[in-house]
Design a protein that fits this description.
Largest sheet: 7 strands, mixed
Number of helices: 6
Number of strands: 7
Strand content: 15-25%
CATH architecture: 3-Layer(aba) Sandwich
Order of helices and strands: HEEHEHEHEHEEH
Radius of gyration: 18 Å
Number of domains: 1
CATH topology: Glycerol-3-phosphate (1)-acyltransferase
Distance between the termini: 47 Å
CATH superfamily: Glycerol-3-phosphate (1)-acyltransferase
Length: 212
């Protein structure tokens, strides 16, 4: 990131602070980072998490205004049609991985507006891109929707690969099975993060009670 991008990210995270767990799990080289999506701040959290070269897929509707499109592009956003991804967007995403860079995808396809943090059905783009490029997938979970001056938490899980399919013809059935594994991995991290947060709260409460 250049100084202007760092300024925006750091400034935003003053108002929307975040704590990271598992930063050591981010691998060297190319990888597909998959995260749940709860608010517009999520992308800034993830840029705060990883300051090196990273790109992400964003719905094409965000690029209608030239000034916004230019800003998003400077942050590494690649416009994509969520319903009918075009070949240009897919090639751009694949090229990111070929250059051994990080590609961030919100596999739910859009922000979760259900009022819960339960993962929504996943779209298949992340697993297909990862397998075609022979790159690992890294599951990421954001604890809750961003709220001003409320510290959020985010966990990065260990990378894993679908290397058994690297030299195999990928059928719809295989893609569906891989999507389920991705969701399972993300759910595992979500449960782990909730457990860590609850354990920390319990420790604080016990400490306050003993001092009270």
């Amino acid at each position: 990131m250049n100084w202007f991008q760092r300024f925006i990210v750091n400034f935003a995270c003053i108002f929307y602070p975040v704590k990271f767990y598992g930063l050591e799990n981010i691998p060297e080289g190319g990888a597909v980072l998959v995260s749940n999506h709860l608010s517009l701040i999520d992308s800034l959290y993830l840029r705060k998490m990883y300051k090196k070269e990273m790109y992400f897929l964003a719905k094409k509707e965000l690029f209608k205004k030239k000034c916004i499109a230019k800003l998003l592009g400077s942050f590494g956003a690649i416009p994509i049609d969520r319903d009918k991804p075009d070949i240009k967007s897919l090639l751009a995403a694949a090229n990111v991985l070929r250059r051994d860079c990080k590609l961030l995808i919100f596999p739910e396809g859009t922000r979760n507006r259900t009022g819960t943090t339960e993962l929504q059905p996943l779209k298949s783009g992340s697993v297909v891109l990862a397998v075609k490029a022979k790159k690992p997938i890294v599951p990421i979970i954001i604890l809750k929707k961003a709220k001003i001056f409320r510290r959020n938490k985010m966990i990065i899980g260990e990378p894993y690969s679908f290397d058994e399919y690297y030299e195999t013809k990928i059928t719809d059935e295989i893609v569906g099975a891989m999507d389920e594994i991705v969701k399972e991995k993300m759910t595992e991290q979500q449960q782990k993060l909730i457990y860590m947060v609850n354990k920390s709260k319990k420790a604080v409460n016990e400490h306050e009670s003993s001092n009270g």
